[in-house]
Amino acid sequence: MAAQTHQDSTLRGARPSIFSYFRDIRVIQVVLQIVFIILLVSILSFVFINVYNSLADRNLVPTFRFLTTRGGIPISDSPAWYTPDESYGEAFFVGVINTIRAVSVGLVGATVIGILVGILLLSNNWLIRNISRIYVEILRNTPLLVQLYFWYFVVFLEALPKDPTGLPAPGVTSISWSVPIMFLLIVAITLLARRTNFPTRMTVGGLLGLIVMAAVRPALLDNPTTEGIVTIGMLLLIGIFLLISFFAPKDWRGLATGFLAMTVGTILGAGLFQLFEYFGVVADGQALNLSVYPVFYYSVKGIFAPEIIPTAVFGTWAVFVAIGVALAIVLWMLAGHVTETTGKPVPRGTYAILSIVIFSVIGWGIAGAQARPTTIPIEGDEGTVELVPYDEALESGDILFEDWPLYRTEPVIIATPELNRFNNLEIGFVLQPQYSALVLGLIVYTSAFIAEIVRAGIQAVPYGQIEAARALGLSTSDTLLRVILPQALRVIIPPLGNQYLNLSKNSSLAAAVAFADTYQVGTTMMNQSGQSITGFTMLLIVYLTLSLLISVVMNIVNGRFQIVTR
Amino acid sequence: MTTSQPDNTPDTMPEAKVSINYEDPPTKPPPLLSTGVLAWIRENLFSSPFDAALTIFGAAFIVFAIVGLLNWVISQGDWFAITFNFEQYMYGRFNTTEVWRLGLFALLVAFTAGTAIAAYFRRISPVFMLMLAIIYIPVLLLPAIVNATIALPESYVVAGNMNVVSGTVTEDPIEIVAFTAQGGETVALHYADEADNSDTDLANIAGFVDDASNALRTAAINRLANIARFIELDEDVQIDAAALDEGEAGLFIPPQRDTILREYESLQYTPDEDQLARIAEIEQILADEADLREAIAAEEEMQAALPPSVPFALEQVSETDGFGRPVTVRISDYSQEGTLRVALYNNYQEVATQRLDIDESGTVDVTFEAEDIPGPGYYYVYATIDDVPRARMDLSFSDPSAILTPLSEEERAALVTERGVLLQPEAVIGIYDLNNVPVAITITDRDGNPLPEGTQTLEPGGEAVSFEIPEDGWYLLQKEIASEDEGVALLSVQGLYPLFERTTGFQRMTDGFEISAPIPRDANNEDYPFYKLTENKYRGERPLGDYLRVYLSPFFTKTMFRVGSSGGISLQTGLVALFIAGAAGYFLARMLDRNSPQQVPQRNSRRISTQLLLSIPFFMFLAVIGADLLALSLLGAWVAYVILSYFIGLRVGNVISGIQLLAVSLVMLVIGAVAMYFAPELIYGADSSIPTIVATMFGSAAGSRLPITFAVILALPGLIAVWYGSAQQSSLTRSALMQRIMIAAGVAIALFVIPVLYNAAVDVNRDNPDAFINIFVHTDPRRWGGLLLAAFITVYGIILAFPLGIALALGRRSELPAIKLISTLIIELVRGTPFIVVLFAGVLLIPFANPAFAEIPDIYSALAATIVFIAAYLAENVRGGLQSIPPGQDEAARALGLSGWQITMFITLPQALRAVIPALVGQFISLFKDTSLLAIVGLIDLTGVTNQVVVAQEFIGTRKENLLFITILYFVISYIMSWVSRRIEESGSGSARRI
């Protein structure tokens, strides 16, 4: 029967009519696809021709040639070489650089804050849990644009002071003799408590006390009006911690004791110092005076931060560091191989770090010992140029900031910001308010989403895993690092990649805060030159490349973290 | 616990009385810390030290944040910008004569939503009602209570004939001011007594302040700030200088020192002679005091050096005591060799000293001369041997109460302050001789006729004057100071409040009283200055009462009682509608579900509620775009389709659900296009934008082919209905079926023809919005804005993106390589591009795509871009849903012999769509937030309104307030949607299926 049918069909197939092809599903599919493509191409070409013609009517034939003509786009946040006289192409390139600057910092910041908030979302502490929940909900449910407006117009242009304000405030502070005494007290209490292991809680308590005292002491010294309040507050604190150290559960006692030791130590130390002064051992307040110079300045002009400058000998040092890193990698792999083959645990992390550190230190020494110019040409009063020895020039302050890298011995110098007479930055690194607002806005907004992802990821790890880890006697950090995180990361990484993509795309909102990123420069370019088709093509290419890059990296990372099944 | 003795040992303890206590020991209460609130606190807030630190930190943060925010909101924020622009925030510049459409829309939505929600839950939740009441009643009553109990704040105006200078600003007191008032109000004026005592009082006035008053106030504030800063610097600079003199480092680090000294000098002011004398006096006092402190310190040192037992006798032996006479002191029984020094002190000052050498023993008399003891005082004597203090004695006539004491901290600070003040300019109230001149006050009506009270004079220290306003209108306030008197008077006025100038007239901000008459003009035919908000802002720290009365109450009044004066609905009306509809929905649900099968008792009501909610976009279409003939025709066709299907034997639910909805929507779109193709000019006016554009796009209109259109419109949905109906219902006989089709067709034709007849009969003038309720007019899309625009783009973006998104998803999963490739390409291209780029491309390029598009409003370009953008994301969501369906479903369907198309339409897609409902809601929220980007491409959505408001002259500097307001709006709406989404998610796929 079946054979008969088969024969029939072959017989019929032997004389195929033209229509039978149109009944063949394969042929229909191919024809349909061809029709679809023709339809699509014709519609697209229709639209494109229309656009092209309309543009041509306005004398705006799409071309890339305009990229080399003078752009005249002023960009405030640009590399030193850029001026408005540069071409459109270069302006666009600066835009791309700015986008990358914003996105890269944003990604790191959003990840760090997001993970932190995600963990806080799971905190046992009701208050903290709900504060982070509110943080997440508010940020998730309001538009990024509004948030950016808030950061830029309200925080960076209104709330910050007009004149640069130093952080920490410049002036004179006092360091206390009590600091060494506090440490002695801690050691003494440790010995008294006869603990074999390191008293973590007590140390934490001590540090807490140190912080409180550090905050309180200057107020005590400098400001008599707050003295009373501070004293009462301090007494109250000491009282509370005294109570805790007596009545609280065991865990708390160490903490409270450490705190008490530190505060009492501070007071004792202060007393001891008074005694010294009384007997003339210490001359007067001079010994305690310490001038403080600001490390950061903040104002509506932006945030002034220390600048890291590689000097002329940086190259030498970099070579050493590179050798150290290379050796570290080799050691790491070798040690890993040894462990795998013999089963012997090798502390490869320590070896790697040691290698890097040793080579860096040696390199620092060798780079510092390299010969540098010993005399400095300095322009005299009458336009003459004299050669002044380096040491003299250093003393007279004739070395310009730009010349520092030539003469300094360190491979890398960190220059704290300095202001000139007009409160403008002379030395240092400036974060413009536009850039700061954009990056901060992106970080805060994306962190809310990342926090939710992290929370969900950690919650996806069955609780039994944690219990099992505890039962095995793993420490809290080991439980977190070796049990929870590897499993949570599998859940976290794919949506995290999505958020990274979102952040990179959201960086285009820089236009709202007048930060010259790709989109902003691109639209300016399009408006000025009228080359909209070309402009959009370029924008598309940049953002697609960025997205592709991020998704490729995230896919690789994802691949590494997924379960390997056999 | 008591243990009983074993029974088998009676003889060992025969006499022992064994008591067996069967009662349990009394249960101890659990430890205090393990139950109740304390336990909760301990467990949740203080479970570990780190936890406790976090809690303290968090609590401090919350307190700081809330207190700071509330403080700013109440005492500093300027909320007029919100109240005044409320309409704009809600619907942009929507034509005021057409606002009734929005009211209608809101009412319809309220009804629909109310019915739907009640039908869905099928019960009246007391908690929900209670919550509504708790929120609603206070908000409803608040304006009334506040207005009744709290008086409006004072206004301050300046009268005078000299300029008020503050910094670089010079203000001229205005003599005649126009203001609006309601009949029956009282305008009362008096001197601002609260401000004329000192600069501190002047700086503290709070209320509506005109430019000149503000200049006075600012001058006072500046002066106080300068004084405070000067005094602060003065002390530091002096300490610094002293330290420098002694060769120490000083207080300031070198680069800072120059700046500080410069600031110090700039704050200094050259005082006149009297002041110089007083400064010298104060400096003398301070110097004396410093000396005195030194002397006291020396005295204390000497006292401390005295031996515990005196090695000799010291006594006063002179016969004559008292002032102006010599005094003799005797030292006897000494047993030491050396130089004896006897010093007479008066008030720590050494007055006289006598030295003599003494040998081993004896008696010495020392006499002090009369001139050393001129008058009463605190006299004492120190005896010193070899410069070592040995004995001390008070003289008999000395008066211990006369002893000098150093100044207290407060007195010293007061003197320092006084010195600082003296080194500063004269007090503002002094410069302007504030409130010391009589002011003649007249209020006239707009033509210059004085009120019956006539001209009243306000004398310093005299009574307040008041005027009764006869009727609503403009009035002129004249305040004159006689030319011979030089001075400035700060008047406190009740009844004068700032105005907003708007196209329709003038609105008083404090209570919304509106007047449309123009401002009166003076003899030169120029407008009188009037009391406008830009010049009469609220200044100073604001108390809660003023905040409630001036900001909160008008805001609620605006939202609650009058959303637009031209026919918008109020929140109350909406809520009432919601309640009525809720009740209706409740009974409807009860009635419908009475006959539903036992397994799914809520099936019918839930279906109804879903369908009702789905109809909201259509209402929006009606309201926002305007109901044109095509829209009505489509509505008619829709109803016809439903009725038709029903008569054929389908249930209503089946007709309007799932994939059929999609199919019919598509058909309706096609119908629309066809209709517009054939007869655009018959259906639309020449000026309506979209249809014209669509018509032009498809070619020109080819004469009247209206009947064909009708036929198509009626036939197509009907055919679909019959198709499905006949497939599903075979119980009807042929004749019954025909009968039903006939009835349905009749209804459909009627529905369709009535609007056409109406149109013909009324002969609507499309440009005249006053002609009856002209539902055939398109609203101007360029005027849409605010929340309305955001909602429009969100709702239509999602709805219209749906077909495209599903098509792309199916395309991406297709086995045909070309379609798969193209779909993937489109999806990935769009997803890799920022929304703002897509929007910008849409707005910029769509007008070029076709000559007909050149005039297309940006809103439609933006909507088109949004649709493409959202479709790509929807496609991925739907693809996720499709992937989640087990392959068994597909195989089973194939085994049943369904075709590929049927499998997709009836098996996989419906399940996939149900699975991705939460993701879709997420998409909805995200799109709603993303509508803020419309502001960047120049549309006036919520964010765009903010951008416009903050550059308006009256509202410069209110960006914080505006941003906060839209943030709250965005948050509330998004949060409600995400809450609903979470509820759906939590209730699991089961209830998602029921929906």
What are the key terms here?
heterodimer; A: 566 residues; alpha+beta; MetI-like fold; 4 domains; 4-stranded antiparallel β-sheet; two-stranded antiparallel ribbon; globular; disordered N terminus; B: 995 residues; 6-stranded mixed β-sheet; 33 helices; 22 strands; disordered C terminus
Provide structural commentary.
The complex is a heterodimer of chains A (566) and B (995). Chain A has 566 residues and is an alpha+beta fold. Chain A has four domains: 19-56; 88-164 and 431-561, MetI-like (MetI-like fold, Orthogonal Bundle), CATH 1.10.3720; 171-292, no CATH class; 307-415, no CATH class. In chain A, 67% of the residues lie in helices and 8% in strands. In chain A, the strands form five sheets. In chain A, strands 1-4-5-12 form a four-stranded antiparallel sheet. Chain A has a two-stranded antiparallel sheet with strand order 2-3. In chain A, a hairpin with a 5-residue loop joins strand 7 and strand 8 (385-389). In chain A, helix 16 runs antiparallel to helix 17 (476-506). Residues 1-13 and 285-289 of chain A have low confidence and may be disordered. By secondary structure, chain B is of the alpha+beta class. Chain B has five domains: 96-151 and 553-622, no CATH class; 152-189 and 435-552, no CATH class; 286-402, Immunoglobulins (Immunoglobulin-like); 627-778, no CATH class; 783-994, MetI-like fold. Chain B is 54% helix and 12% strand. Chain B contains 33 helices and 22 strands. In chain B, the strands form six sheets. A six-stranded mixed sheet of chain B has the order 16-5-18-1-6-22. In chain B, strands 4-17-14-15 form a four-stranded antiparallel sheet, with no helix packed on it. In chain B, a hairpin with a 5-residue loop joins strand 20 (505-508) and strand 21 (514-515). The two termini of chain B are 63 Å apart.
